[in-house]
Amino acid sequence: MSQEIVSKVSSYLTPHVPLNLIAQGAEAVVFTTNVHPYLPAKDSSNKSYIIKYRPAKRYRHPLIDRSLTKHRTLSESRLLAKLFLIPGLKVPQLIACDVYNGYLWIEFLGEDLPNNGGFSNLKNFLWMFASSDPYDPIVKETLIKVGQQIGLLHWNDYCHGDLTSSNIVLVREGFQSWQPYLIDFGLGSSSNMVEDKGVDLYVLERAIVSTHSLFAETYKEWLMDGFSQVYRGNGSNGEKKLKEVISRFQEVRMRGRKRSMIG
Amino acid sequence: MVNLNTVLPKNGRNYYVALGLEGSANKLGVGVIKHPLLAEHEDGDLSFKCESEIMANIRDTYVTPPGEGFLPRDTARHHRNWCVRLIKKALQEAGIKEPSRDLDVICFTRGPGMGAPLHSVAIAARTISLLWDIPLVGVNHCVGHIEMGREITGAANPVVLYVSGGNTQVIAYSEKRYRIFGETLDIAIGNCLDRFARTLRIPNTPSPGYNIEQLAKKCSDKEALVELPYTVKGMDLSMSGILAYIETLAKDLFKGNRKNKTLFDSKTGEQKIGVDDLCYALQENLFAMLVEITERAMAHVNSNQVLIVGGVGCNERLQEMMGQMCGDRAFGQVHATDERFCIDNGVMIAQAGLLEYRMGQATTDFSKTVVTQKFRTDEVYVGWRE
Q1: Do residues A61 and A136 share a domain?
Q2: Is position B386 within any domain?
Q3: Are the beta carbons of A262 and B185 separated by less than 8 Å?
Q4: B185 vs A64: CB contact, 8 Å cut-off?
Q5: Distance, CA of B353 to CA of B349 (rounded, Å)
Q6: Are residues A102 and A126 part of one domain?
Q7: Which residue of B has its CA nearest to A262?
Q8: Which chain B residues are closer than 8 Å to A63 by Cβ?
Q9: Are residues B42 and B126 in the same domain?
Q10: Are B1 and B44 in contact (CB under 8 A)?
Q11: How many structural domains are present in chain B?
């Protein structure tokens, strides 16, 4: 199956675009390439780019499939474009999109961690420190920054929808400092509902607890520190909204995301 | 380690026999099931391979006239009227002459479902329990569907799509519970189809969903599709909006409201869309949503098997779409059962109940046999799996 998709993508993108499959989820397939869609070749030869492709689903009626692909690719690219303009918020830059065929062309971020630590997302980063010093000052600084990013996202009334430690990419800044970027806004939306924000935080908490359970308590504290900083930086209004989000977050945790029983 | 032979069969028999009573909605089902006592069940999770033999599986459905749904009170009355007759017939079919000697356990549906019908069947179960001095097991209806599906198809650890009149859930097993990964945020899929059928006065025999499926097959122009809302939210879905929208269309169609441009040509006033087109569009839309959340769950838990259970699960179009989705995944397999086991029945209650009984979970204390309308799938401790 994946071979079928790869050959379809490469015939669409022409042989001039080399492809490297890096991930396949339920909805999209992700490739890397070193070709920029519109800049001259010499400027882009060293950089990598992400191509996110939503393949057509055979089981769906073609009309439903087409409208969904278009709608989802469009809303994701709009969201990315808007988030990119928010000062302080770090998301990858959108380079190009073809919403009718389901292609997104995004800036590639991150690097490989030293000692075969894998790709520099938050998950691998925390794994790397788990064996040496899980409470290293660098970890603390990074997690607070992650919290700030999420706080900034929520403060501007956007939601991620699928916050996990693998959807946060770390980009090296200087020698021992990392800047987190939020990626994959496939389930993201613009929302001012406290509920959505509470669910976002709950999903993140579950992800941290399930993959880094030993140190989760401290990690959660640091994340929430960063999150609160952003809200507190906005005066009494921020203070009020922070209380709302946190109390809803606790409520969501109590009921385990799901309502008790419906119909 | 799971030992399914914790409790041995009565009277030194080399097999277990269980009677199952189901009546959570408009179907009253009585089933008798037999499990041989096998040595390999003493260690390891083989709960999907009980080599069960179905001795009887009878069902009686309370059918209402077109345009009407079933009300709890009337359904309960139907169950009370038929319960004794069905139990007698099932025992006769299974060749059980002396129930107090030949039955190990009586299983009944504890929930979820409609209160009054559940209650009437539970009373019947308690009565025969006292009469024949046999312990009782209260079974979660959803778990009954899952266990029957696993036993029939032999799927060891599938992602389960449970679709029926009252439930729409995507379930996967993890650490002694059937966890719910995605579900409906408002009404169930069967409920959505039934209510649509009611608006269109589609007959309720044999079931509204079946008639919608047949009408959809007759749709002449499958290229065109009436556009409906598509409301998947992560791994959950919502169907009330779709129902409200398509009901407006259906009503306009009946009234002949020519102002509706989706249904009638704006210039000539000619009817563009018929009942079969609406049925087709509704099915395509709803089922695409179901298959999508199932695929998400499969990617999430890294599974390649799907099991479809519940009344809507016998829809062939849904099975076909699920098959296409699985075909596109590596080693994907789809398991489904036919109407005997998809639609609510007594055998599935007996199957799940007997597994529970074999793990030593039966009771004779009636205060523990109280039925409940709200009974989550993940509340059940699944002792018989690893």
Answers
A1: no
A2: no
A3: yes
A4: no
A5: 6
A6: no
A7: B186
A8: 224-225, 227
A9: yes
A10: yes
A11: 2
Where do we find the tokens 């709302």? Answer: A244
Same domain, A82 and A28: yes
Residue B4 lies in a domain: no
- From the list B112, B327, B330, the residue facing A261 with the nearest CB is B112
| Res. A256: pLDDT tops 80 | no
Same domain, A140 and A243: yes
Question: Do residue B139 and residue B269 come from a single domain?
Answer: no
Would you tell me how many other CB atoms lie within 10 Å of the CB of residue B367? 6
Size of interface A-B (CB pairs under 8 A): 69
pLDDT digits (tens, 9 = 90+) for A209-246: 888 888 999 999 999 999 999 999 999 999 999 999 99
Q: Which of B284, B292, B330 sits opposite A61 (nearest CB)?
A: B284
Give me the domain span that covers residue A72: 2-107
A261 within domain boundaries = no
C-beta neighbour count of B361 within 10 angstroms: 18
Cα–Cα distance for residue pair B307/B254, rounded to 1 Å = 38
* Chain A residues whose beta carbon lies within 8 Å of the beta carbon of residue B234: 161-162, 187
Q: Is the pTM here over 0.90, yes or no?
A: no
A116 within a domain of the structure (yes/no) = no
Query: Within this chain, do residues A213 and A165 fall inside the same structural domain, yes or no?
Result: yes
Q: Do B288 and A26 touch (CB under 8 A)?
A: no
Task: Kindly state whether residues A103 and A158 are assigned to the same domain.
Answer: no
Each residue's pLDDT tens digit, B15-59:
999 999 999 999 999 999 999 999 889 888 888 999 999 999 999
Min CA distance, A91 vs chain B (Å)?
Answer: 21
Q: What is the pLDDT of residues B235-287, one digit of tens each?
A: 888 999 999 999 999 999 888 888 888 888 888 888 888 899 999 999 999 99
Contacts of B288 in chain A (CB under 8 A): 57, 59-61, 64
Q: Provide the pairing of β-strand B232-233 with B236-237.
A: antiparallel
Residue ranges making up the domain that contains B70: 10-150+344-379
In this structure, are B79 and B128 located in the same domain? yes
The alpha-carbon gap from B187 to the nearest alpha carbon of chain A, in Å, equals 6
Mark whether A66 and A152 lie in a shared domain: no
- The length of chain A in residues reads 263
> Among this protein's residues, is A98 annotated catalytic?
no
Which stretches of chain A sit within 8 Å of chain B by CB?
A: 1-2, 25-27, 57-61, 63-64, 67-68, 161-162, 187, 258-263
The DSSP call for residue A117 is -
Q: Are residues A134 and A215 in the same domain?
A: yes
Torsion, Cα A33 A39 A42 A45, to 10 degrees, reads -20
Count of domains forming chain A? 2
The single residue of A157, A162, A200, A225 carrying the catalytic annotation is: A162
pLDDT tens for each residue of chain B, 386 residues long: 789 999 999 999 999 999 999 999 999 999 999 999 998 898 888 889 999 999 999 999 999 988 888 999 999 999 999 999 999 999 999 999 999 999 999 999 998 999 999 999 999 999 999 999 999 999 999 999 999 999 999 998 999 999 998 899 999 998 888 988 888 889 999 999 999 999 988 998 889 999 999 999 999 888 889 999 999 887 888 999 999 999 999 999 888 888 888 888 888 888 888 899 999 999 999 999 999 999 988 888 888 899 999 999 999 999 999 999 998 887 889 999 988 899 999 999 999 999 999 999 899 999 999 999 988 898 899 999 98
Torsion of CA A36, A39, A40, A44, to 10 degrees: -50
Same domain, B140 and B185: no
Please tell me whether residues B204 and B129 are part of one structural domain: no
Q: Is B166 annotated as a binding residue?
A: yes
**What is d(CA B294, CA B6) in angstroms, rounded to the nearest whole number?**
35
Chain B: give the shortest CA distance to residue A18, in Å.
Answer: 24
Q: Which residues of B237-273 are buried (b: 16+ CB within 10 A; e: fewer)?
A: bebbebbeebbebbebbeeeeeebeebbeeeeeeebb
